[in-house]
Amino acid sequence: MNYGYYRPRMPFVVKNLLIINAIVFIVTMLAQQFMFGTFSLFYFSSPFFKPFQLITYMFMHGSFWHIFFNMFSLYMFGSVLESYWGGKKFFLYYMICGIGAGLVNELSMYIQICTADTPAQIADILRTPTVGASGAIYGLLLAYGMMFPNNMMQFIFPPVAIKAKWMVIIFGAIELLSGITGTNSGVAHFAHLGGMLFGIILILYWKKKNRLYS
What we know:
Strand order of the largest sheet: 1-2-3
Mean pLDDT: 92
Radius of gyration: 17 Å
Number of helices: 9
Strand content: under 5%
Shape: globular
Distance between the termini: 29 Å
Low-confidence stretches: 1-6
Helix content: 55-70%
Number of strands: 3
Oligomer: single chain
């Protein structure tokens, strides 16, 4: 994709988020059982759940391509947003989107438990970990679309160019449809939507308080 906005040198927070995610990924590959069992996000009533997992899960990734695409998006969108907002505001936004995504994912798991047909299905949900920065990344995508709505985004496949605001709407619609229909059941679609939801709430709050550009 070609992002129609000047992208400066990698700013401080984005650079350090990339480094931390890379270090955690390497350690995870060396000690998978401990890392996934300790720092992934489990459902609130799971015996594996710890409150700090609402933060640590967003630094965990399950595969090389998982972390690659998330970190590539963090670099592309995050560099622009941090340079525009400043490091403190950008870091606050990123973390709130990630934590919000985790909370929405917990709500999604609660609904799954309430509608489960057998105890075995409930037990499986309680043992299922959630990992990845995708919720926070979708929050960045939402912010980019709101801050620079008319910037053109050039996709390699399919080879089309669309405005950033339409890209956000399309991605959000795909995640909502996928979550409702159960497409790619191993993907936390509602966590992605949660990141976008908390992102738009925070941006609208800043805008109301005249703090969006300060």
